[in-house]
Write a structure and sequence with these properties.
This protein is α+β, with helices and mostly antiparallel strands. The protein contains 6 helices and 5 strands, in the order H-E-H-E-H-E-H-E-E-H-H.
């Protein structure tokens, strides 16, 4: 039987994984094999700039944490895997997919967005969504267009009444 201290340490790591998954809105499991140390630092810096981070855990401990949370991603837990997480649903997906375009070593496996498991295809489609700031800019541009049209219409109406 394993040492009680070792089992307690493993349980702490499992609890940490569960805590990160439950407190994050966006989680991505990805393969990082082949990244150099400089590229790994660049990836971590890019994720931190987007308000995300990643950590490498043992697959067996991640599998236990996922089983405890009733999340079935055991098929994706083959080979070295890292877990990226964020309070934003899209930011880790966007950063990792952009980084994967430049570095072939990074391969997105599966994601958990709003407690829903998403596959590679869904992650690719989510990566194309503009950022929150971009969406707000588009909304403001649309609203300005409506106000502009209204002002032109009111101006023409006032000229007609004169």
């Amino acid at each position: 039987m394993a040492n009680v201290k070792i089992l307690a340490k493993k349980q702490e790591v499992i609890d940490e994984i569960k805590d990160r998954i439950t407190n994050s809105k966006g989680v991505v499991l990805f393969d990082y094999r082949g990244l150099t140390d400089a590229e790994a630092k660049e990836l971590r810096r890019s994720l931190r700039n987007a308000g995300a981070d990643y950590k490498v855990y043992k697959n067996t401990l991640m599998a236990r944490a996922m089983n405890d949370l009733n999340i079935d991603i055991n098929d994706s837990l083959t080979g070295p895997s890292a877990l990226a997480y964020s309070d934003d649903q899209i930011s880790p997906i966007k950063v990792l997919s952009d980084f994967a375009k430049k570095h072939e070593a990074v391969v997105l496996k599966v994601g958990i967005v709003d407690n829903e498991v998403t596959d590679k295809e869904k992650l690719a489609s989510l990566a194309t969504i503009p950022s929150r700031d971009g969406l707000l800019t588009m909304l403001a541009g649309g609203m300005i267009g409506i106000v502009k049209d209204l002002s032109i219409c009111l101006d023409l109406y006032s000229k007609e009444k004169e």
